[in-house]
Each structure stands twice: as structure tokens, then as C-alpha cells.
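For reference, the entry.
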Amino acid sequence: MSTNSTVPARLRALLPSLLADAGLALVTLIWGLTFVVVKDAVAQVPVMTFLAWRFGVGAVALLPLSFRSLRKAGRREWVAGALIGVSLFAGYVLQTAGLQWTTASKTGFITGLYVPLVPLFAWPLMREKPSRNAIAGLVLATVGLGLLSLRGDLRVERGDLLVLGCAVAFAWQVVLIAYFAPRMPALTLAQVQITVVAVASAVVAALAGEQLVPLPRAVWGAVAFNGVLATSVALGLQNWLQGKTSATHAALIFVLEPVFAAMFGWILAGETLDLRGWVGSAMILAGMIVGQRNNRSGAASENKEDALATSR
């Protein structure tokens, strides 16, 4: 009798966390799909021009949903959204610049290092000390990323240092969202950061002499997909759902991005993984599972304590 009544209670306590995880996994899946979609687009237009259009379309697409909360936004919301937007923009710029002096495979791995950086940055800012399981999961996931993405020699080049800066910027974006999202409207944060990246990308493209218009017709599909789904929808969900979980927990889910990228590369572009790639993908999944064990029990115990406090 007691067992039967306890199981549904536990499931109810875990349900919000499970739904948040599923939503963040969906966001990661969308980002993994963008690698295939963007590949042809950036071969036809400069990267900064593509980013300006992508985030510009994303800002316009999100505006009908965020307009009401945006009108009520104060200085704190604008500053927080701008800080997140600057981190996101810096990540894209440093990654693009680094690609000129290093390989794409090394770029993929070094960018993925933002995952273990997230708990390091979250610790002093949010007093969010990672559990042993979270640390073990992050180590497994980082090694898996290396097996999946890293090829050739391991020499450190100028581009590698730039891409490392990109990883730092993306880590701060995740941590800043985790810090501000529980305190502010998610749609306001998403709208401001997307707009900041759009404007900054357009300014840099113009300063670099890139031609923003006209855009080739073949690129519009990629712009629409990335602008609406991968930017407006994905970043809106990320800002909303990260307010319901920890930065470390979110990072462990985001580590699935290269796995989804490899999966869609195989399905849509005929790319294949060797044994090393499959082992790396398996280690990423294992790291995610191991890293979430303590978070699940912790969430359940916190909910139980809240329920007891309420009953009193």
C-alpha cells in the first residue's frame, strides 16, 4: 500500500525535471541539425552575413510572443539580456576567426570544452558546487567529445587559442542564463540576446565589407530554419527551461549536440562514424547518465522537503 502510493508521488516530484530535460534535449537536437543545414549556406555567403540574417529573422519571429513582456522590461532585464547576447556573439566570432588557423575537427572538440567549463564558472557565481557524479559525467563526456571530434596531431595553434576563447564565451552564456532566467521573464531575455547578436553581426559584417543584400535564393531556406527554429524557438526554450534546472545539469544535456550532429550527418549527408566515433558517442551518453544521478535524487529530496514545509 505504502509502496504504491510512494511511486506516483516520486514520479510527480520528478515530472517537472524530466519535462525540462526533454525540452533541453530537443533544443540540443535542433542545434545538432543546424550543422548539416548551415554547411551549404556558409559556402555561399560570409559567416557574419549569415549570422546577421539568422538572428535578425529570429528576433522578428520571437517579437510577437515577447512584445508584451518586453514593454514591461526594466534596466535589469535589458542589461542581463545584453550580457548573455555579448557572450553568445563572442562565441560565434571567436569560433569563426579560429577556423581560419585550425582544423574543423579540432574546432569541434575545443568548442565542446564549454561543457566542463560550465560548472567551474557556476561554482563561484551561483554557489553551485558540482557533485562527484556531475564531475565524473563531465570527464566522461569530455573524453567522448575528444574521441568523436579530435583528429590528427594535437599541436596548439593560434586558431586553437581563439576557439578556446569561444568555449569560454559559450560556457558563460549557459551560466548567465542559469543565473538570470529564474529571476526574469524568459522571453525578454531571449529577445534581447537574439537582437544583440543580430545587430552586432550586421555591424561586424558591414565593417568587414560584406554585402548583406541581396541574399542568394538558395540560402533563404537555411536562414528561415535557423532563424525561426534554431534561434527563436531554441533560445526561447533554453532561457525558459534553464530556469528550472542547474547550469551543470543543462551542460550535461548540451553535450549531446555533437552526437546529434553526427547522427544527422549520417542520415542527411551520408557521413559515417568510425569505431572511435561510436565509442566517443557512447561515452558522451554515459557521461550524461552518470552526471544526472545525483541531480535526480537531489531534486526529489528538495521537492519532498518543500512539501513537508507546506504541510506544516
Notes: Residues 23-311 form one domain. Residues 148 and 277 are 4 Å apart (CA to CA).
